Amino acid sequence: MSDTLIRLAHVEKSFVKGKEKISIFEHLDMTIPRGDFVAIMGPSGSGKTTLLNMLGGIDTPTAGEISFDGQRIDQYNERQLSKWRSDHVGFIFQFYNLMPMLNAAQNVELPLLLKPLSASQRKQNVAAALEVVSLADRAKHYPREMSGGQQQRVAIARAIVSDPQLLLCDEPTGDLDRTVADEILAMLQLLNKELGKTIVMVTHDPAAARYAKRTLHLDKGKFVEREELAA
Amino acid sequence: MSDFKLVWKNLMRRKLRTFLMLFATLIAFAIFGVLSAFNNAFSGDQAAAIDRLVVVNKINFTQPLPVSYPARIKQIEGVKQLSYANWFGGYYPEPKNQLVVFAVDHTTYLDVYDDAITVDAATRKNFMTDKTSAIVGRAMADKFGWKVGDRVPMNSNIFSQKSGARVWDLTIAGIFDKKKENQDTNFMFFRYDYFDETRSFGKDTIGWMMLNLTSSSLADKVAKQIDETFANSPYETQTDTEKAFNKAFVAQFGNIALIVTLVVGAAFITILMIVGNTMAMAVRERTREIGVMKSLGFPGARILKMVLGESLLLAALGGLLGLGLATLAIGGMKQAAGNFVPGLAMTGDIMVFGIALIVALGVLTGIVPAMSAMRMSIISALGRT
Q1: B296:A85 CB<8 A
Q2: pTM above 0.80, yes or no
Q3: What string of pLDDT tens digits covers the 231 residues of chain A?
Q4: Which of A186, A140, A133, A139 is nearest to A157 (CA)?
Q5: Is A51 in contact with A218 (CB distance < 8 Å)?
Q6: Which residues of chain B have a CB within 8 Å of the CB of A97?
Q7: Burial letters for A27-66: b for 16+ Cβ neighbours within 10 Å, e otherwise?
Q8: Do B295 and A87 count as a contact with CB atoms less than 8 A apart?
Q9: How many A-B residue pairs are in contact by the CB < 8 A criterion?
Q10: In what order do the strands lie in the sheet with A89-92?
Q11: Which chain positions lie within coiled-coil regions (chain B) (predicted)?
C-alpha cells in the first residue's frame, strides 16, 4: 500500500462567466500522504473551497488528474463518485448541516443507510461514533436542543461513523467560540493521531491551523510560501 | 432508521402544512368516491343485459301501452322471452317512505330476468298459485324484516282500488337474491293480474315491456321492427336496449357522468396545483439538506425515490382516508335514499380507479421536485462556490 492517499497532478479548474473564462487553478500539483493532517489557508477567492470540493468528488477538474489511493476519481461518473464518497470520505461543514427533523443518533446513522448493515449493527456503530465525540448521552436530542459545539460534534460523529479514510473539513470552527473551537480541533487531532484519519481542513484561523501537522497556503490558485503570501 | 422513516420525518416536519395538504386530498377523494358511486348507481350498466330490450310509450315512459301489445310483439322473429310491468308507486308504512314496487306478469317475469335474479322453487310455486302474492328483494326484506307468508299492506300514491282504498294486501311468496354483482335487490313485485283487476283506472294498460332476444346482434333490427309495427297508432312505442333505457332514465336528472367528470376533474386539478406547488416549495426549502445527503454519498436516484415517496405517501394517506370517508358517507346515504338510488355502493371498480388516481396524483405532484432534487448540484445546493 502506497503512502500517498491523494495526488493532484496538473490540475486545472476554470469556468466561463459570460464571455470571460475565469481560471481558478492552472497546473496545480499536490500530494497528501496517508494519515496526514493538512490545513489549507489563504485569502477569500484563493480557491480553498474549490480545492476541497474537488478532493471530495463534488466538483471535477477541467483538466489534470486526481487520484485517491491510486484510483483516478476525476474519471468517475456521478454514481461512482457517490459510492466513493460514502466509502471513503467524511465531510464536516462550518454550519454543521444536520437534519433538523432527526435526532443526534438518526443524523449520525444517515451515512450507514448506504451500507449493507442490519439495524442492530447500525445502532452499534452510531453508539460508538457518539461515544468518540462524547455525546452518548445526547443521542435522542434534536439539533435545536444542542449548542453549536455539540452540533459540530454530532457532525463529526456523522463524518466518522462509516469509518472513512479521509475527513474534509470546511471551516469546522468558523461558527464557534475559541474554547469550543479548541475542543473540536483537539477532537480532530485525536481522530488523526489515534484513528489514523487523513484530514484536510480549510480554515482562515491560524490558531486552528496550528492543530494540523502542516499548513499549505493558497493564493490565486497556487500554493505559496507564507512569506510570499504575506508580501 | 429506514428510508421510509426518513420520508415520514420529512413529511411530518411541518405538521400544519402536511395536515392541510392531507385534508385537501382527503376532500377531493371523498368527492370522487361519492360522485362515482352515484354515477355507477344511476348508470346501472353492469346489471343491464345487452340482449334485453325495453319497450315504452314513445311520448315518455310514464304513458301507458295497451296490454294487447305483448302478444303482438312476441310474434316478431328474434324475440325469445317477453314480459311486462307497471309502476305501482308504493310506500310503506308512511308516505315519506317510498318503495320501488312493480306489478308484473307473473307467468313471464322471472324467466325474463333469470340472468339477474334468482328465486327458489317454493317461491315460484307460491307466486303462481296465490294471486295476492309478491316477491321481495333480499335487501328490502332484510330492511323491513319481512319473511315468507307475511301479509304486507302496501300503499300506492298513484292508484286506488275500485273500493277507493289505496292499500293492497300482499302476501310475501318468497325472497329473491341477485345473480349479478351490481344487481339491486331493494325492490319488490307482485302480480299484474291482481293489480289490474282491482285498480280503479287504467285497466288493460301496462307501463313497459322487457324482452330477451335470441341473439344480441338482432337488437337493432328487432327494436326497429317493434317501433314500425306500432307507428302511427295511438300508442306508438320507443324500443331501446335495457342499457340505453337506463341511460335515458338517468338523463332526466342530468348528465351524471359529465357532472362527475367536471367536479372530480376540477377538484383534482386544484389538488394537483396545491400539492404540487407545496411539494416543490418543500423541496426548495430543503436544498441544503439534499446537498448534504448527496455529499454523504446518497445517489441522485435514491434522492428522487425519497421525494417521490413523500408525495406518494401524502397522496396515499389523503386518498385512502378520502375513499374511506366516501365509503362511510355512501353507507349513510344508502340508509337514507337507497330506495331511490338502488345499487348505491362503493364498488371494487371505484376503489381500483381511486387507487390509480392516488398513484397518478402522487407521481404528478412529486415528479418535478423529485427530478429537480435528483439533478441538484451539490455545490450549488450547499452554496459552496
Answers
A1: yes
A2: no
A3: 568 899 999 999 888 888 888 888 888 899 999 999 999 998 888 888 899 999 999 988 999 999 999 899 999 998 999 999 999 999 998 888 899 999 999 999 999 999 999 999 999 999 999 998 889 999 999 999 999 889 998 999 999 999 999 999 998 888 788 888 898 899 899 999 988 999 999 998 899 999 999 999 988 878 886 544 444
A4: A133
A5: yes
A6: 288-289, 292, 382
A7: ebebebebbbbbbbbbeeebbbbbbbbbbbbbbebeebeb
A8: no
A9: 70
A10: A89-92, A166-170, A198-202, A37-41, A214-219, A222-224
A11: none
Contact A110 B293 (CB under 8 A): yes
- One domain for residues B267 and B309: yes
- The CATH number assigned to the domain with range A35-60+80-230 reads 3.40.50.300
Using a CB-CB cut-off of 8 Å, the residues of chain B touching A110 are 293, 296
CB contact under 8 A, B294 and A101: no
When divided into structural domains, chain B yields a total of: 2
Report residue A125 as a C-alpha cell: 456503530
- A79/B385 Cβ within 8 A: no
8 A C-beta contact, residue B113 and residue B212: no
ipTM given for this complex: 0.89
Q: Tell me: do B228 and B349 sit in the same domain.
A: no
Closest-CA distance of chain B to residue A110, Å: 8
Residue B202 and residue B277 in one domain: no
Would you call A106 and B1 a contact, using CB atoms and an 8 Å cutoff? yes
Find chain A residues with C-beta within 8 A of B13's C-beta.
100-101
Partner-chain residue, chosen from B13, B300, B379, that has the shortest CB–CB distance to A101: B13
